[in-house]
Amino acid sequence: MGMEEGWCLLLCLALSRAADTAESQWRPVDVVLDCFLVEEGRHRSGFPSSENMVKALLVLRQVPMLDDGSLEGFTDFQGGTQAKDGSPVTFEASVNLVQIPQAEALLHADCSGQEVTCEISRYFLRARQEATTETAAWFITNMQISEGGPSVSIVMKTLRDAHNGAVLHPTLHLPLGPQGTVQTAVEFQVTTQTPSLNFLLGSSATLHCGFSMAPGSDLTSVEWRLQHKGSGQLVYSWTTGQEQVKREGATLEPEQQLTAGNASLTLPGLTVKDEGAYICQITSSLYQAQQIIHLHIQASPKVQLSLASKALPLTLICNIAGYYPPDITVTWIREELGGAPVKISDASFSSLRQSQAGTYSISSSLKAEPGSAGATYTCQVTHVSLDEPLQASTWTAPPDQRTTAFGVIFASSFFFLALLYLGLQRWQATSPKVCQDSKTHWVATLLPENKKKD
Questions:
Q1: Are residues 283 and 391 in the same domain?
Q2: 291 and 361 in one domain?
Q3: For 156, which of 184, 224, 342, 443 could close a Cys bridge (C-beta 3.0–4.6 Å)?
Q4: Which residue range is the domain that position 112 belongs to?
Q5: Which of 399, 427, 446 is the last residue of a domain?
Q6: Which of 328, 207, 327 is nearest to 276 (CA)?
């Protein structure tokens, strides 16, 4: 965002010195933005480029601001008296008919370390009225605050009549006001507070879309469309009280909210199919404008580390499952007792697997070399859905400890088997004997010698 020389410095200093005890009150303030004007007919492709974009200045006149003392010393815009070739085109826009809901964010963008992208282009009425278009022109301005800030689109109509002997701009051939500006009035605006959103899989999301229009213009339709990977589809539409729902569960704000200028869309039970660019298009009896909200779906991974093979060299498997989007970083770390952690780069990966729900899974394997003192191996996973990386660790014993452990296990097993064998022999010695011939079955019990019969 650009302001007249010294404005931003004065504003930032005023903000830092604002008294906490100051009584808040509304005050009209001029918001000045550096913009680009897209001129028609200067490029064959029809797309904006450096060849058909010229510098411009947009002045939103006397926008009501809540002043807590921070606007002290802030002066109104002072324009020139004559527009010259090569000088920026200055558009002076009145907001008496339509307020700009995000004007405060536009005003304070510089002091917040943000930038405002502002582009002005010609706007043509949906229903052309020849008697009107001969004496007026329309422009649409799109303003976007960086770092996920609000986005605002406004439709402006020129106020002065070129047939009344007014001075014309040298290139636009539009009548100029006393300060050498193209005087306009804002008659329609569509805004979103959240141009980019991140939501977890399965949660609900509300996509903000607000609007307002000058008196005498009526709302005729609201349409939400989804664009993703080259294909588009209707999500929801509202036309003079009738609605059409294409995405199950999608709801618009109640009709009384539409009257108040709220066309936000709510989507419950998000799936990966809901990801994409949502276009909120608001249509009135005269104008049409839109905002784009990018919805990103995320699912956090689950990490499990296991030992796939006990034979030397050991094989560790790190399973990462249930995440979205598919971009993920897996890092293996080896740390000996008392040593510094060392990253290992020779891990291998399985192919990427996708579940029916659209989430992804992958496995990473590593040949572990514990060394003479043993080592701890860690599988670390970084993903956009995580505030901090996930980790799973295991300790691998050195070869001699594994041999000793195996020897102890073997000796214990041998001792147990020996006891089992001796017990079995004793049981056989004290158990009845069963004798059998081809004709008779009988049992003889061995008696102690002192009880033997002759």
A1: no
A2: no
A3: 184
A4: 1-190
A5: 399
A6: 207
- Enter the tokens of residue 337: 């007792």
User: Would you give the distance in Å from CA 151 to the centre of its chain?
Assistant: 16
Give yes or no: residues 178 and 81 share one domain.
Answer: yes
Question: What residues have CB less than 8 Å from 192, skipping those under 6 apart?
Answer: 150, 151, 207, 208, 209, 210, 280, 291, 293
How far apart are alpha carbons 378 and 318 in whole angstroms? 9
Domain count, the chain: 3
184 shares a domain with 67? yes
Note whether 33 and 137 are same-domain residues.
yes
Q: Is residue 432 a part of any domain in this protein?
A: no
Question: What is the distance between the alpha carbons of residues 434 and 304, in angstroms, rounded to a whole number?
Answer: 58
**Which pLDDT does position 452 carry in this prediction?**
40
- Residue 294 burial class via C-beta count within 10 angstroms: exposed 0-12, middle 13-18, buried 19 and up: middle
Q: How many CA atoms lie within 13 A of 227 on its CB side?
A: 9
Closest by CA position to 279, among listed 293, 264, 268, 267: 293
Radius of gyration in angstroms for the set of CA atoms belonging to the chain, rounded to a whole number: 39
Alpha carbon 237 to its chain's center: 24
Tally of CB atoms within 10 A around 338: 6
Contacts of 425 (CB under 8 A, 6+ apart): none
266 with 229, same domain? Answer: yes
pLDDT tens digit string along 32-78? 999 999 976 544 444 555 567 889 999 999 998 887 776 776 778 87
Residues 30 and 125 in one domain: yes
Residue 150 per-residue DSSP state: -
Contact yes or no for 366/344 (Cβ under 8 A): yes
pLDDT in the model for residue 75: 74
Residues 258, 225, single domain; the answer is yes
Give the domain CATH number at 216.
2.60.40.10
Q: Is residue 170 part of a domain?
A: yes
Higher pLDDT, 266 or 430: 266
* Helix (H) / strand (E) containing 38: strand 25-38
- pLDDT digit string (tens) for 184-225? 999 999 999 999 999 999 999 999 999 999 998 899 999 999
Nearest to 191 by CA among 258, 253, 100, 124: 100
Contacts of 196 (CB under 8 A, 6+ apart): 148, 293, 294, 296
Instruction: Kindly tell me the sign of the dihedral angle through the C-alpha atoms of 174, 175, 180, 186.
Output: negative
